[in-house]
Amino acid sequence: MNNSNKLAVFFDLDDTLYNHLVPFRDAVHEVLGLDDSVLNIADLFHRVRHHSDLLWPQYLQGKLELEETRLLRMELAFAEFGLDLDRDKAAQVQAAYIDRQYKIQMIDGVLQQLHRFISGGHIVGIITNGPEDHQMKKICALGVDKLIPKNRIFISDAVGIAKPDPEIFAYVNKKTGTTADHCLYIGDTWANDVVGAMDAGWKVCWYNPRDRQPLTAHKPSYTFTNYAEFGELPIL
Questions:
Q1: Tell me, what DSSP letter sits at residue 119?
Q2: Residue 70 CB-half CA count within 13 A
Q3: Which of 6, 67, 88, 160 would suit a FRET pair with 229, their CA atoms being 20 to 30 Å apart?
């Protein structure tokens, strides 16, 4: 099927369809008793994701086991804040964090935007980094699996390519019969989402609710801070 002349809209998952910070904040509070009165949990989580992105290629190459990757990112991030997180505590935080990721809700306005594109006849899908089973459980927890067919859900571990490698976006084009110049990607992470998609020739809407600063000279088509704002963008 040739979809090259239709607008294709693909979303990131973590921190784009749901607030990734919530399960992390709750896990840290439960296991360690820490909250925003002690340190900025959002900044801590940002560093956890940073180290996760740095370690992920080693996991994909088979140099690190998945659990080691998850625990090491915790230890490295906490150390930056002067917190000595031993392996046992890191494992407890990780377990509590994973558990809460299967009890998540969409960010306000996301569902309306998914329906907007689907009902308009546009190709809608997801491109996300992570283990296939883990990411699918989150997609199912959100109910997105009932809206988007599985052949339009692309998970890095299943594909064998991870963002920000532009090849994952090229792979999606090939599998969906779309072309880069008719594709729009919506994501929150500068390096993975903005840079990766733009380097593949896609248009990008950068979801930036925490006022992060650009890290390169890339210029996304639009930047938005909430989905009410996103709904007003002249992207169609």
A1: H
A2: 18
A3: 6
Sheet with 153-155, edge to edge strand ranges: 153-155, 123-128, 8-11, 183-187, 203-207, 222-224
Give the span between the Cα atoms of 145 and 171, in whole angstroms: 21
pTM of the model: 0.90
Contact predicate 54/37, CB 8 Å: no
Distance separating alpha carbons of residues 45 and 222, to the nearest angstrom: 25
**Closest CA relative to residue 67, chosen from 44, 96, 99, 90:** 90
Q: What is the pLDDT of residues 64-109, one digit of tens each?
A: 999 999 999 999 999 999 999 999 999 999 999 999 999 999 999 9
Q: What is the mean pLDDT of the chain?
A: 95
Spatial separation of the C-alpha atoms in residues 218 and 207, rounded to whole Å: 15
Question: What tens digit of pLDDT does each residue of 37-57 get?
Answer: 989 999 999 999 999 989 988
Q: Which helix (H) or strand (E) holds 10?
A: strand 8-11
